[in-house]
Amino acid sequence: MNELLRNVLFLPEQASTFARKVDSLHYFVIITTMIASTVVGLTALAFFVRFRRRSETQVTPLLNPPWWLEAMFVLVPLGFFLAWFARGYSDFVELKTPPKDSMDVYVQAKQWMWKFSYPDGPNAIGVLRVPANRPVRLMMTSRDVIHSFFVPSFRVKQDVVPGRYTETWFEAIEPGRYQILCAEYCGTNHSLMRGEVIVLRPEEFDSWLADQRRGRALQQDGAPTTDEDVASVADLVRQGEKIAVQQGCLKCHSVDGSPHIGPTWLDLYLRREQLEGGGTVVADEGYLTESMMDPRAKIVRGFNPVMPTFKGKLAGPEVAAIVEYVKSLRSVPVEQARSRRPVYEPIRRR
Amino acid sequence: MQPEGHVQEHFANIDVQRQAARLGMWAFLGTEILLFAGLFAAYAEYRALFHEAFVLGARHLDARLATVETAVLITGSFAVVMAHHYAKTSKAGMTCLSLVVAAATGLAFLMLHGIEYWHHFEEGALPGKYYSFPEIQTAGASMFFTLYFLMTGLHSLHVMAGVGVLAWLAWRASMGAFSHGNYNVVEMGGLYWHLVDLIWIFLFPLLYLV
Amino acid sequence: MSPSEGVDIAFPAHHYLNEGTTVRSWLLTRDHKRIGVMFLVAVILALLLGGTFALLLRFEHLTPGPTYVSAVTYNRLFTLHGVIMVWFFLIPAIPSVFGNFFIPIMIGAKDVAFPRLNLASLYIYMFGAALTTWAMIHGGADTGWTFYTPYSTTTTTTVAPMLLGIFILGFSTIVTGINFIVTIHTMRGPGLSWMRLPLFVWAIYGTSIIQVLATPVLGLVMLLVGVEHLFGFGLFDPARGGDPILFQHLFWFYSHPAVYIMILPAMGVISETVAAAARKNVFGYRAVAYSSLGIAFVGFFTWGHHMFVAGQGTFDAGAFGVLSMFVGIFTAIKVFTWVGTLYRGAIRFTTPFAYICGFLFFLVFGGMTGIAVATVSLDVHWHDTYFVVAHFHFIMVGAAMMGFLAALHYWFPKMFGRTYHEGWGLVSATLIILGFNATFIPQFLLGNMGMPRRYYDYPARFQSLHVASTAGSTLLFFGFMIIFIYLALALKYGRAAGRNPWGSRGFEWETPSPPPLHNFEKLPVFTHGPHEYQGTAEVPHAA
Amino acid sequence: MADSTAHADHGELSPARSALIYVGLLALTVATYLFSRHNLGTWSVVIALVIAIAKASLVALFFMQLWYHRGSVRLALATAVLWLFLLTFFVVADVKSRYPLTNPNTNPLWEPPAAAQGHSPPQPSPSGRP
Q1: Of A198, B185, B201, C110, most Cβ neighbours within 10 A?
Q2: Is D93 on the interface with C (CB under 8 A)?
Q3: What is the total count of domains within chain C?
Q4: Is D113 part of any domain?
Q5: Whole domain around residue A107: which residue ranges?
Q6: How far apart are CA C254 and CA C243, in angstroms?
Q7: How far is D89 from B41, CA to CA, in rounded Å?
Q8: Is residue D111 situated within a structural domain?
Q9: How far is CA B77 from CA B184, C480, D48, in A?
């Protein structure tokens, strides 16, 4: 039945857990719509044939509906609509709250291409590799205008707002290749901004990831971008360390916890810092990047404001790499596979 | 318009015509309120986001000068109410005088506001990419001044339009056009001026005091 | 009802058309009927222009790659199609043409409340149209009619003049809205209480409330985008802390009520024409009257369903989702009433009735798909795909256009005193209904397959449906051409229609057609509601 | 829709009453200024708005003579103010209930779009795509 209806309505295959749930509501809504409109059309035609005008001076009675008939005709559609809303909204909230153990992928949309970077894995242009049967959370941002990440087979779509992060998640259920399209108008080649999600079996994915991390598979998937040097070093964290050394961060920030000119980076991530002018701040990605761009905004108590600003000197991906590097400096040993942050609380509880 | 209140041919009587004019004016005032509604919504959102920058920005603005401006506008409103009263009791001279006073308060408001703008131009507290004000550097500071200039700028445009209307009414009053039979136009001009004052009554605390 | 051929009816000697025949008497007229006719000409020109853009878009989609237009031109074409059809045809169509012409006649008034303001509305519309045409010739914007920031503020195409053109046009809508509200409130004839008002007047009253309360926010948004585009104030610029989603809030706060500005007058027309075609009183007058107001008020609470996937909060998504469901019930009441009016009526199949049938089917199907798209989880897949394109074209071309054509045919005898050729009317109606289905049913399926909107080049798997849709659109185009041909011919060669060719008990059929300058020989006194046919049905052409 | 056609204005705004209201408005203006001098935290917003609403209703009811005209005229003002509140409420509710990182200022990673400004959209062919 599901396959029949899916083909009749030209729906793409259901390749994610969310797709199957949405399609069942979809069938119910579309079938009710078709029935209702044909019933109205046929009744109108039946009334026409039955009550056509027989003579010019024909007299028609004055009829007004009893209140209950009118009330029924309001409440019955309203009942349908509210039922659809209830089911629809619960699915939507579920789509908006990614599960705790989902794998993190950073997505960067840029005028007319997609770029995916795994926190502790490789970068890729236009091709997103994900393991099957595991939730994947996408943290998406755009470099210029609003785009929209849309995978028809997963029934998932989320606008990508410039300068901010929007998030969505999906759990692919069967391996295969599924097309990514941009759904929000973003300029001349909005229609050519396509990509591909390649769903691999979990063990296949882990071996691919391991290869990438060892930097062996050097050739990049999809087309290399011309105007941006794609980091060849597989590991974003190691790349962050390389940049931190180049930029001279480590001259002031120690990585082993010893006191230095600037606060140490060991266990810095998610630590509550006491600020100079009173008040505290949690050192999350936001604070880390802000203190790189605008060091004097929030000074940690006990340190003097000597840090130069890196605004304009560090591009977005480099800042992200340094932030990853800071996050990886933990006195507790780093678990390779799982990424634990940022901590997600379901939206409802807050 | 003949002096004794010309009833346009398609209205039943003078009262219907006045009620029609009043309803039409109020519908227009409704559109003005909604025009500013968009800006109030933008103000509410950005205040919720950049609370710190908005408080610093408000503290930086000259609240004393703004209080004087509010008093000036309220005086203008009072003058218009008196003009309406005089027009109804056919005192052409007093109507013209109070309308001139009202227009003068409008000009005074614009001048005071001009001084404020000049002050901001000097110190570089300008909207968007022109923002180069050293004192407030927190996130969203330029947003406060963007909203400040948009809201007060749009309001000043309306004050200018109001002064134009009042001047035209004053000129008509000096020609003796308004009397007990025909004071409706003064009431309409007054309604518009009161709305301009009403909007400033809300702009004043939101931008200068909180 | 095709007027009986035999009787030759006298064409009234004096009427508003030959009151003054100089061009100056037309350009400076304060007669609401002439302003209505001038708006009709302007609106039809806009329809033709917008329609040709639609055809260009459809032909471009015959093949996936570039067919005959470059990407930038295609983006400009769909922007212009959107802007012209929304602001220059659909919003002014029924209120400014038939509202202007018939509201004073229906409520027994000589003219609208502010005649000079009414003429000003026409000239503001002309000025806005001229500015937008100038912007169109100079490249025109490529941002879509929604002007989403930050693309609209960072694109290098001429966005500012088009924004100014729409800003000015907004005033024309506001002024028309104010005019009608005051006219209906203060100038009803003796004995005409609110509950005896014709349903078309109720619909136009609801539309005017939306026009007056929603259009200022559009004016502000156009101003803000223009200022941001030219001077970079940073209100929506993400780099300076601005929020592009705030623009969407302000834009859709206007644009969703705007779609009710487009559909509500059409519903008013259908309420009139159904009662006249079935020669029966409307089945539940009070429900239809209040539902017009219901749509006008509740329509303002639902704009967020355009932004479910734009990054909106889950609370807002839920609130807007529920409220969108409530708007649907008012349309449901109206549909129930129209079908109920046909029950035990005396229906004659005329061209307006053909459009009524088309209207009913498209409104129910379009409306229900609208509710489906407002169901939050389904919208995630459908948003910005051809499913949404098909939904709003079902409502705008399917319902609002059918309403406009029904009004044009139903009131053509009253406005111009002549009747059109009934046979050609039915031919064009069938062509349009079939052509419309052939154009937009495939687009529903395209949307399901995941074909995004505003795509110049598309993956090959969508091609067959695009070709079907293009074929349908040519059918639709020919349907419209036939209408304009036989209506233009009827202007000159149509038979004199007489006072009441349809035998309708609407108030507007009391005056001769075309009506005299001040609408009535003597002011009517209202003793009963409209469309009350019980008792002896009046024989048509009683002079 | 209370019907308010053609009925005489009952009662008038006498000069004495309008002078009284004028003085009241000035007093409220000074009061709100004084309140704002010392920072009362969130209370300062509430007080400022309460005083502003009081002043606004004085102007609307007496100066604009809503006190003397019933019906549709009041409805016009009430609807406009309700729409203002409606728009503001949903915009702020959206900002509060959004995914936190979608709001501005928590992510200064974003540098000014100097690159985007210079974008000339009609690039002949997108990088690397057919």
Answers
A1: B201
A2: yes
A3: 1
A4: no
A5: 103-214
A6: 18
A7: 8
A8: no
A9: 17, 56, 21
Which stretches of chain C sit within 8 Å of chain B by CB?
Answer: 109-111, 113-115, 174, 177-179, 181-182, 185-187, 212-217, 219-221, 224, 227-228, 231-235, 237, 240-243, 246, 249-250, 253, 518
Can you give the CATH number for the domain in which A194 is found? 2.60.40.420
All residues of chain A having their beta carbon less than 8 Å from the beta carbon of residue C459 are 179, 181, 194
| A294 in reach of chain B (CB within 8 A) | yes
Backbone angles phi, psi at A319, to 5 degrees: -60, -40
**Per-residue pLDDT, A232:** 39
Q: Phi, psi (5° rounding) for residue C156?
A: -100, 5
CATH number, domain containing residue C354:
1.20.210.10
Query: Highest mean pLDDT range out of A333-347, B102-116, D88-102?
Result: B102-116
Cα atoms in the Cβ-side hemisphere of radius 13 Å centred on A275: 14
Neighbours of chain D (3+ CB pairs under 8 A): A, B, C
Q: Which residues pair with A280 in a beta bridge?
A: A274
Report the range of poorest mean pLDDT among B110-124, C430-444, D112-126: D112-126
**Residue C526: predicted pLDDT:** 86
The total domain count for chain A is 3
Give the chain B residue whose CA is nearest to the CA of C183: B20
D22 with D49, same domain: the answer is: yes
Would the CB atoms of C319 and D98 count as touching at under 8 Å?
no
B137 → chain A, closest CA residue: A297
- Asked if D22 has any chain B CB less than 8 Å from its own CB, the reply is yes
Q: Which two tokens stand for residue D40?
A: 């009362």
Q: How far is CA C68 from CA C65, C301, C454, D75, in A?
A: 9, 43, 16, 55
Choose from A11, A51, A178, A344 for mutation: most chain C CBs within 10 A. Answer: A51
Quick check: A311 and D111 CB within 8 A? yes
Averaged pLDDT, C266-284: 92
3-state secondary structure C487-518: HHHHHHHCCECCCCCCCCCCHHHHCCCCCCCC
Domain span including residue C437: 32-510
DSSP H helices, C61-99, are 71-83, 91-92
C283–A187: do the CB atoms touch at under 8 Å? no
Contact assignment for C304 to D94 by CB distance below 8 Å? yes
Average pLDDT of the residues in B113-134: 84
Residue D120 lies in a domain: no
Q: Which of C259-263, C272-276, C421-425, D116-120 has the lowest mean pLDDT?
A: D116-120
In a domain, C520, yes or no: no
Per-residue pLDDT tens over the stretch D20-43 = 999 999 999 999 998 888 877 788
A65 lies within 8 A of chain C by CB = yes
Owner of token pair 């709250």:
A97
For residue A222, being part of any structural domain is answered with no
**Residues of chain A with C-beta less than 8 angstroms from the C-beta of C287:** 65, 70
- Residue B138 forms contact with A (CB below 8 Å): yes
Residue D111, pLDDT > 50, answer: no
Q: Tens of pLDDT along C300-314?
A: 999 999 999 998 989
Q: A187 or C211: which carries more pLDDT confidence?
A: C211
List of chain C residues whose C-beta atoms are within 8 Å of the C-beta of residue D95? 243, 313
Closest-CA residue to C321 (of A27, A83, B37): A83
Closest residue in B to A297 (Cα) is B138
Based on the fold, state whether residues A248 and A277 are members of the same structural domain. Answer: yes
Task: Give Cα B198 to chain centroid, integer Å.
Answer: 7
Q: CA-based diameter of chain A, in Å?
A: 104
Give the CATH number of the domain where residue A313 resides: 1.10.760.10
Structural domains of chain B in order of their starting residue, each with its CATH number? 14-209 (1.20.120.80)
Task: Please state the pTM of the whole predicted model.
Answer: 0.85
Query: Is residue C535 domain-resident?
Result: no
Peptide bond into C459 cis (omega under 30): no
Determine, for residues D77 and B30 on separate chains, whether the beta-carbon distance falls below 8 Å: yes
Residue of D105, D106, D107, D111 to mutate for B, most B C-beta atoms under 10 A: D105
Highest mean pLDDT among A207-211, A328-332, C295-299, D35-39: C295-299
- pLDDT higher at D117 or A215: A215
For the segment A149-198, what is each residue's pLDDT rounded down to a tens digit? 999 999 999 999 988 889 999 999 999 999 999 999 998 889 999 999 99
D79 touches chain C (CB under 8 A): yes
